[in-house]
Design a protein that fits this description.
heterodimer, A: 235 residues, alpha/beta, B: alpha+beta, 4 domains, ten-stranded mixed beta sheet, 26 strands, flat
Chain lengths: 235, 707
């Protein structure tokens, strides 16, 4: 399903995604999801909890296998052989509970994707990391252990980390769920700023205020994805 | 490397992951303990084996060439028995080597060769192949083997009898005196020929001791007559001229620096006594009269001395001898200043040496050994006495061996060892250590017995011999019975046996070289050379591992090594299973982080590698710790052995089997084995957790809220 008329480059194309669970009883969580997100677009997926928003995001982000359906990310058809490469080079994740590596400093966290990509840890890379932290306003916290950071700071570090390898799409799962209003706004701004750069954002939220900021809004209901009604958007 | 940096991060102990830290610490400790044990054990056993092999090959050789039956049947060997120029007798390998003519047979003089004899083995020019010379030529052709030398050996069986003539003490207050006893040792023995240029001999020869020297000196008076050796009364004393000559030779080679008194004491000559002195002493009484005064060298010994005499049921009293103006007095608790008559003997008991110097002139006039004289200087209880006295009642306490003179025991001269022989004592023989332990001393006389068949009877023959040295045969099963004698003795006895009686005698060529590891290489090139010369069927080539008398022990050593290696591997496995459990706990602990890393694009291979590396790091660190501990232990092995012996209450390692000190050289083979096996096993141990780690689903771990 594609609502946007923009003829920009297609960065995410999910076709007929199905996902079912069988324990203890069969649950057909996702039933034929189609989604296309182009460059410069941001897609918000809204839904009640338990609808399978996070599962969908994880499938789109290659973290979980769909039972059926295909996925193309930035012209790469997702297969098990290239998943790691796609995760490392083409996409970035921002999670509700941040998921930072605890034994590392903020800067080390930010540079981890580059290290995984086996980039040489040198002056250049460190500067790149510091620049990313500066973008999220945390230049002075670079060498802090992540344990010492506040929730908002942690999420900003997570965002900087997601940007490390200059990905095409960012997947965000309730990025401001654990944050207070002011901090949440800051995160939203940073996320949307990313999209203006010719990238794409897919975010999962139950917060219509956040969804409204995105270019496209979808509602996950009974295992299918529908474009959000104007009524929902205005309310 | 990203994986390595993460693995390191995981292994650094943190309070939050206390259980993992403790288990990894235990893993490291266990592995280092196991590595320590293995390295120390293997190093010591390796060293022991090396020592044993060295001793084993010291008197034989690392390689041996022996004639086969084909050799004994050959025309080359048999022809001597019908040739006049060979005295119609078979020849040993040595004789064959020394002989210039290959074929002694002369058709004009010698009888016809029997028709059933094998054909002569001829070379391409039609000459008889010289089987022995060809072997030596083949050995000479081998290149690149250091210290390569070939010598023929002869081995035969004989019977040795040794008479042990020993002085004993009889104590009687009126008359201390030495008497002698004689016992006889008699053993069947193997006899091998002494090779004077064997470079390994030095390691096995035992040094001459003071008691050996004393015995050798005492035996100078006697002639070795095997037929009259049984009773002391019938022993034959040499003429004074001969004794003088032999004493002169003895003292040419030995400089005596200290003497001590024999166990029955030495009567101080009157002219030794000073004008003034006061000595603590014991007086021996008979019917209330002092009949002997015994003076110890040290005042504090007087009490022990009194007790000793008491135990001998002698009437004794402890007190003081005082000399005033040359007059002797005795005082003790019952008497004070009793005058001692000049006839009362003053006996000195000194088990420690005092300075002595030979009066050279006394050798010219001595009729017996007791006649030689020494200038003595004896510090008795702080008062020194001195003078010239005869050797009677004294014995050697310390000496120096002078080089450049012939000794009457095994000695080295110009790089060669010499096993001496003389017409009075007979042939010198080198005895294994077991004889020394049985009480044999250098200079003891005896005989080798063999049987010589004549036309009518089998005659018993004796070769007079004397103990001229001892060697340590190591742990060869027959080592305790293997006697070395000069070539002519062995040849003589061997020729009395049937030539093909393999049990009683053997003959062959010993090939010596420095590096034992080259044995197989030398064997291979010899076999090839023999093949090309067409003589391989006449000769057997064996390395030291294949000798009849070593095979079992070498295999035993080998299988013990394998057995321990097996045990070692099991222990390492157990130690490494610790790593497995530690890593599994680590994986469980780090599930969340694994999920994050996977989400950031880490491949499952990377994740596996992280845990594999963590396992290997523990293995390597543990091994390194263990090896350093092992090196430290080997460096201080003596202390450890002393401690263990102390705890055990007796000697931990018998010096008979293990030598005087355990070898403490680090075995590089053991090191390599341990390093490889711990590395391999700890990597293998990493596999289970690594598989577990890459099965972690990022979606599951990331959905549950993390930090």
């Amino acid at each position: 399903m594609r609502v946007s008329e923009a003829s920009s480059e297609l960065l995410l194309k999910a076709t007929n995604i199905h996902k079912s669970y069988y324990h203890p009883l069969p649950v057909n969580l996702l039933q034929g999801i189609n989604l296309e997100v182009g460059a410069g677009e941001s897609a918000a997926i809204v839904g009640r909890s338990g609808e399978g928003k996070s599962t969908l995001l994880q499938i789109l982000g290659t973290l979980e296998e769909p039972c059926k359906g295909s996925l193309v990310i930035a012209n790469h058809s997702v297969e098990s052989a290239n998943k790691s490469h796609i995760r490392n080079q083409l996409i970035g994740f921002v999670f509700q509970s941040f998921h930072l590596l605890e034994d590392y400093s903020a800067l080390e966290n930010v540079l981890m994707p580059a290290k995984i990509a086996r980039q040489k840890v040198g002056k250049e890379l460190i500067e790149h990391g510091l620049h990313l932290l500066e973008q999220v306003g945390l230049a002075d916290r670079a060498h802090f252990s992540t344990k010492l950071l506040s929730g908002g700071e942690k999420q900003r570090v997570a965002l900087a980390r997601a940007l490390c390898n200059n990905p095409k799409i960012i997947f965000a799962d309730e990025p401001s769920g654990n944050l207070d209003g002011h901090t949440a706004e800051l995160i939203h701004q940073l996320l949307l700023q990313f999209v203006t750069d010719g990238k794409a954002l897919v975010l999962v939220t139950h917060d219509w205020n956040l969804a409204r900021l995105c270019t496209n809004q979808y509602e996950l209901k009974n295992g299918t994805l529908v474009a959000a009604t104007l009524e929902k958007l205005l309310n | 490397m990203f994986e390595f940096s993460v693995a390191c991060k995981y292994l650094i102990p943190r309070r939050r992951q206390l259980s993992v830290s403790i288990i990894s610490l235990i893993s490291i400790l266990v592995i280092s303990l196991v590595v320590w044990l293995i390295v120390v054990f293997f190093s010591v056993t390796d060293g022991l084996e090396k020592n044993w092999v060295q001793k084993l090959t010291a008197l034989t050789a690392p390689l041996r060439i022996t004639p086969t039956q084909a050799y004994y049947n050959s025309y080359y060997y048999q022809i001597d028995s019908i040739s006049d120029s060979s005295d119609y007798s078979f020849k040993t390998i040595q004789e064959k080597q020394d002989n210039e003519a290959t074929d002694p047979y002369d058709q004009e003089y010698d009888q016809e060769t029997p028709s059933f004899w094998p054909e002569a083995d001829l070379d391409t020019q039609g000459h008889l192949k010289d089987l022995v010379q060809l072997v030596y030529a083949s050995i000479e052709d081998i290149k690149g083997v250091k210290g390569l030398k070939a010598r023929s050996f002869e081995l035969t069986a004989s019977h040795i009898t040794i008479h042990l003539q020993r002085k004993t003490t009889v104590l009687h207050p009126a008359n201390f005196y030495g008497t002698s006893t004689q016992s006889t040792l008699s053993y069947p023995a193997y006899l091998g020929n002494f090779v004077n240029d064997n470079p390994h001999l030095k390691q096995t020869l035992l040094p001459i001791r003071i008691e050996d020297l004393n015995n050798q000196l005492n035996s100078l008076e006697w002639a070795n007559d095997p037929l009259h050796q049984e009773q002391e009364q019938s022993r034959k004393i040499l003429s004074p001229t001969l004794i003088r000559q032999r004493l002169q030779n003895f003292f040419n080679a030995v400089k005596i620096t200290q003497l001590k008194t024999r166990s029955f004491g030495w009567n101080i000559p009157v002219d030794f006594l000073p004008e003034e002195a006061s000595w603590k002493a014991c007086a021996l009484f008979k019917d209330q009269t002092i009949i002997r005064l015994v003076i110890p060298l040290e005042a504090k010994e007087a009490l022990n001395l009194a007790e000793y005499f008491n135990n001998q049921n002698l009437t004794v009293s402890q007190g003081w001898i005082t000399i005033k103006n040359g007059q002797l007095f005795w005082s003790d608790s019952n008497h004070s200043l009793v005058v001692i008559t000049p006839k009362t003997p003053l006996t000195l008991l000194a088990d420690q040496g005092f300075a002595a110097e030979l009066i050279e002139e006394s050798l010219q006039s001595a009729n017996r050994i007791e006649d030689i004289r020494f200038h003595l200087q004896i510090p008795i209880q702080k008062t020194s006495i001195q003078g010239i006295a005869s050797y009677r009642g004294l014995e050697i306490a310390d000496f120096q061996l002078l080089t450049g003179f012939a000794h009457s025991w095994v000695y080295q001269s110009e790089g060669h060892y010499i096993l001496p022989q003389n017409q009075y004592q007979g042939e010198g023989i080198l005895l294994p250590k077991s004889f020394k332990e049985a009480g044999v001393l250098i200079g003891d006389l005896g005989s080798l017995v063999y049987y010589s068949p004549t036309a009518t009877i089998i005659q018993e023959q004796f070769i007079p011999v004397y103990a001229a040295g001892f060697y340590d045969p190591g742990i060869i099963p027959i080592g305790g019975k293997f006697i070395l004698a000069n070539q002519n003795v062995v040849s003589l006895i061997r020729s009395s046996h049937q030539q093909d009686d393999k049990a009683a005698s053997s003959n062959g060529i010993n090939v010596r070289f420095e590096n034992l590891d080259q044995a197989d290489e030398v064997k291979k090139s010899l076999i090839e050379a023999f093949k090309s010369k067409g003589i391989s069927r006449y000769w057997d080539v064996q390395t030291y591992r294949e000798y009849d008398f070593t095979k079992e022990i070498m295999q035993e050593l080998q299988s013990q090594k394998y057995l321990f290696m097996l045990i070692a591997i099991v222990i390492i496995l157990v130690a490494c299973s610790n790593i497995i459990s530690m890593l599994i706990i680590l994986v469980n602990d780090k599930k969340h982080e694994i999920g994050i890393l996977r989400a950031m694009g880490a491949t499952s291979k990377s994740i596996s590698l992280i845990f594999g590396l963590a396992g290997a790091a523990i293995g390597i660190f543990g091994s390194a710790l263990g090896i350093s501990l092992a090196i430290f232990t080997l460096y201080h092995l003596d202390t450890l052995v002393t401690l263990l012996s102390f705890m055990q209450g007796h000697e931990m390692f018998s010096s008979n089997l293990y030598g005087n000190a355990l070898p403490s050289e680090l075995s590089y083979e053991a090191l390599l084995f341990v390093l490889l096996s711990t590395l391999l096993i700890s990597l293998l141990a990493g596999i289970v957790p690594a598989v577990k780690a890459c099965l972690v689903r990022p979606s599951t771990t990331l959905r549950s809220s993390g930090s």
